[in-house]
Amino acid sequence: MATRMMPLLPGSFRSPADRVSFRSPAHRVPEPRRSPAALPREVGATRLTVPTGLSTGLGRDAVGVPARFGFKILSRLPAKGCVYADSDWWWWLVPSGSDLDLAWPLPACYAPGAEIPDRGPRLVHHPDGTSPYTPPIPLYLLVCQLTGTAPSWTAPAVRSAL
Questions:
Q1: Residue 54 half-sphere exposure, CB side, CA atoms within 13 Å?
Q2: The whole model's pTM is what?
Q3: Which of 34, 48, 31 is nearest to 109 (CA)?
């Protein structure tokens, strides 16, 4: 028959006998041990690499979305560039400055310089052409649609002069 152990709070005792021996270091309740896998680990950063033969003349940034949106976005985009994925995130290469005047909706993440958390991303889609980029406006509109966010960008000031 299995017994359940109730966790002890600091300063609590199981019995009056424990109260007497609690002050002795040998009778203290041991701290719970954590396995190395349970400890939070530092995640470094990595820069997404572009496959050989593709030119990044416009610079490179990346737009990431949680993995649950990955296949939906990939299947609905009319044009796709390099797409990378790890266990938690999918990343699309976009030209540098694709965040200008755009508010990418949460939970999307914009990564200038295509520098992302290093969780072992791998290339999951190679573009058919010579451009590694996904067009940012269709990507932005699709991310907005999937997250239930209305697209929002600032309009330039319009002036008329005679």
A1: 19
A2: 0.69
A3: 48
First to last CA, the chain: 92
Whole-number CA gyration radius for the chain: 26
Name beta bridge partners: 111: 62
3-class state of residue 10 by DSSP: coil
| Token representation of residue 49 | 């690499």
- Across the range 55-76, mean pLDDT stands at 93
- Taking the C-alpha atoms of residue 78 and residue 123, their distance in angstroms, rounded to an integer, is 19
* Residue 97: both structure tokens together: 């400055």
Distance from C-alpha of 77 to C-alpha of 23, rounded to nearest angstrom: 66
| Phi–psi pair at 32, nearest 5 degrees | -65, 140
pLDDT band at residue 41 under the 50/70/90 scheme: low
